[in-house]
Design brief:
By secondary structure, the chain is α+β, with helices and mostly antiparallel strands. The protein has 4 helices and 5 strands.
Length: 184
């Protein structure tokens, strides 16, 4: 029986035989506050984790993607009443997960919303490439475009249970991932 983690990560393995699944070689989780200061915490966590995994080559890209995914979660998935400093924080609403296999690295953010990630125009992400949405004059709203541009692939899945919500993930191929890496 699959665990919740395996179920959430199933899209990462679509199109691969079970023999191409390399064992998980590292994982780290950071529970974040519901305040925008959590974006800085997410950046620091990503940098520290990647340094400990000796993956400095991926530090800038993964840190940027983590920052964008956490910002999107805080802006669109966390109720505004929970983002104030006086709001109770009994239940962590946003979590950043970093997982490493021999051939891939995944940055995933879990949030309380069941809704699809939001594009720059405020619509739910569908099957279109985000580059089609990029507005050169916009001052914000490029988060998912950046995630798409800096990662090898990305997606999202709803998570059932308590707490329910969704996980938005970005995959980065590591050196030597040629035959078992995902196609973008």
């Amino acid at each position: 029986m699959a665990t919740k983690g395996q179920t959430v990560l199933e899209p990462l393995w679509r199109g691969h035989s079970s023999s191409s699944h390399d064992p998980l070689s590292g994982s780290a989780t950071c529970i974040l506050s519901s305040h925008y200061e959590a974006v800085g915490t997410a950046r620091e966590f990503a940098q520290t984790t990647l340094a400990s995994w000796q993956l400095p080559r991926y530090c800038d890209d993964v840190t940027l993607v983590a920052s964008e995914l956490v910002t999107n979660a805080l802006r669109h998935a966390v109720p505004s009443r929970c983002r104030t400093r006086s709001a109770p924080s009994d239940e962590p609403l946003v979590r950043l997960h970093l997982m490493r296999w021999a051939s891939r690295l995944v940055c995933a953010v879990r949030d309380p919303s069941l809704h699809a990630p939001i594009t720059e125009d405020g619509s739910a992400y569908g099957t279109e490439r985000l580059a089609d949405y990029a507005d050169d004059d916009a001052e914000s709203g490029r988060g998912l475009f950046l995630v798409e541009a800096f990662s090898d692939s990305w997606g999202w899945e709803t998570v059932e249970g308590n707490p329910s919500g969704k996980v938005v993930w970005a995959l980065f191929r590591l050196p030597g991932a040629g035959s078992s890496g995902m196609s973008a």
